[in-house]
Design a protein that fits this description.
The protein is mainly α. The chain folds into 2 domains: 198 residues, no CATH class; 247 residues, no CATH class. It is 72% helix and 1% strand. It contains 25 helices and 2 strands. It has a two-stranded antiparallel sheet. Helix 2 packs antiparallel against helix 3 and helix 15 crosses helix 16.
Length: 489
């Protein structure tokens, strides 16, 4: 993933606050109450306990409870506010990317780019191979770009559109896309998390990548096989009416291969290491130009002037009505406005995570997990649990790599384990599970961009939840666990 505006050195040098007066019981109070409120909201209030923004308010209440615990342990308000501000500063670029992705979705719709992707995709991808093909396509794009976020915002959106038209449940499609996107993100040398993990563990990049293949390749193969089985057994409703869908798309939009110039340009810019904000911004501008060239009829039907239609597509809701109900749901976009819920969620998560860090709760919980590391398997298990826990508590993928990386580095050395064991475990559990937490920056982003709730795609993001299990299996049976090589004096 590539979004953070902090440099790699700043991330590595981030101070982890250790409050020696805080007990484990006190550190867990905000977490337990937060989990209880979230569980009540999901299972008893159907997600509407406090209205549309229930999850956000619960995260803020969790932050308030954490601050009370902090006050009782002599943590100053200034320290808590500083940590919250540092967390909020770190998501400036992700928020900008989310706004641009909203604008991208709107302009790519009215310019006919997304309809063109769906139109040609329906003719190439059959339902039986669609899901495993989606995993492979997302893997290739993410390997090339080093970014799961870019993959979801480009081919991910298109694949969800194609799969929906084929009658495949959106949760399955999103799970396949995210599985492939995080495989590439995890293995690509262009990914910032792939560079960060070995830096924290004390090994080099390519040693880390080679060592990751031991657990990652079996995991992605299992993922593709499972999706292949699902593809051959799934009962789709959209296959019988593909000709009708194609005809509706073709009569509503001016479909031409020239429209692919825009997404290919964006992917090309990312491949040449152009900053995501610039690449996505150019994608929005090009799509607006192509809308004026190819889709004048669509623009005139949406507003009194073509320029007004483009502005609305960028900032607010856009819906293109066709004679097919299925396509009406597909051909709608929320623009920047549609991303506000996700942005608010991320900001509230950063408030909770910042407060937990400021009071020393994150360090306390991680230190206690170290006590489980009495054996080699216990050490791996503690690291995995710490990474997943920090993805839940701190709501940030980077902290889920940095904090366990710092805390467990010496423990791996004491067990005479090579540092790539730690770097691989950080990626197997910290990088990939972030997309499974609804209020984590990654989970909120993937859900917002693909338009699929985390609860719907989590079980189908097979690669993401299988990765930490795979690393524990290898640890339990001592498969390919590399020892430190000690030089003879």
């Amino acid at each position: 993933m590539q979004y953070n505006n902090l440099s790699e050195i700043e991330i590595q040098n981030q101070k982890i606050i250790d409050n020696k007066e805080l007990s484990l019981f006190e550190a867990l109070i905000p977490v337990v109450i937060l989990m209880m409120m979230l569980a009540y909201n999901i299972f008893f209030a159907e997600g509407e306990l406090l209205g549309e923004y229930t999850t956000q308010f619960i995260l803020l209440m969790g932050g308030l409870i954490a601050s009370i615990v902090g006050f009782l342990n002599k943590v100053s308000l200034k320290m808590m506010l500083v940590e919250i501000w540092e967390n909020l500063k770190s998501i400036f670029v992700p928020v900008m990317i989310l706004l641009l992705v909203g604008a991208l979705a709107g302009t790519w719709l009215v310019s006919g780019i997304i309809p063109a992707m769906v139109y040609y995709g329906l003719q190439v991808l059959s339902p039986s191979i669609f899901l495993p093909a989606s995993v492979i396509i997302a893997s290739i794009i993410s390997m090339a770009t080093g970014s799961s976020w870019t993959t979801s915002a480009t081919v991910g959106i298109a694949l969800v559109g194609i799969g929906t038209a084929l009658g495949i449940p959106t949760g399955m499609i999103a799970g396949a896309v995210i599985s492939g996107a995080y495989f590439g993100d995890k293995m690509s040398p262009l990914s910032d998390t792939t560079n960060l993990a070995p830096a924290m563990a004390g090994t080099d990049l390519f040693t880390h990548i080679r060592y990751m293949t031991i657990t990652t390749v079996p995991t992605i193969i299992i993922t593709i096989i499972v999706f292949g089985i699902i593809g051959f057994t799934i009962d789709t409703e959209g296959t019988t009416d593909i000709s009708g869908l194609l005809n509706t798309i073709n009569t509503t939009f001016n479909i031409t291969p020239y429209l692919f110039i825009v997404p290919l340009t964006v992917i090309g810019l990312i491949l040449t290491k152009t900053k995501p904000l610039i690449a996505l911004g150019i994608g929005v501008i090009l799509a607006a130009v192509f809308a004026f060239i190819f889709q004048t009829a669509i623009l005139s039907s949406l507003a009194t002037s073509n320029f007004e239609a483009i502005v609305k597509a960028i900032f607010v809701d856009t819906a293109i009505i066709t004679d097919n109900v299925q396509l009406n749901d597909l051909f709608s976009a929320g623009g920047m406005k549609g991303m506000l819920w996700t942005i608010f969620l991320i900001c509230c998560a950063m408030v909770f995570g910042g407060t937990m860090d400021a009071i020393g709760a994150l360090a306390k919980i991680t230190k206690e997990l170290l006590k489980l590391a009495t054996s080699i398997f216990g050490l791996f298990f503690s690291t995995v649990l710490s990474c997943i826990g920090l993805n839940v508590i701190a709501s940030d993928q980077y902290l889920a790599i940095v904090i366990p990386g710092k805390m467990f580095k010496k423990a791996f050395e004491d067990k005479e384990l090579a540092p790539e064991n730690l770097s691989r475990t950080l990626e197997d559990s910290g990088t990939v599970t972030s997309a499974l937490i609804p209020w984590n920056t990654c989970g909120a982003y993937q859900s917002g961009v693909l338009g699929v709730p985390v609860a719907d795609y989590a079980i189908y993001a097979i690669f993401n939840w299988l990765s930490p299990i795979m690393t524990l299996i290898f640890a339990a049976f001592s498969i390919k666990i590399k020892q430190l090589v000690t030089k003879k004096v």
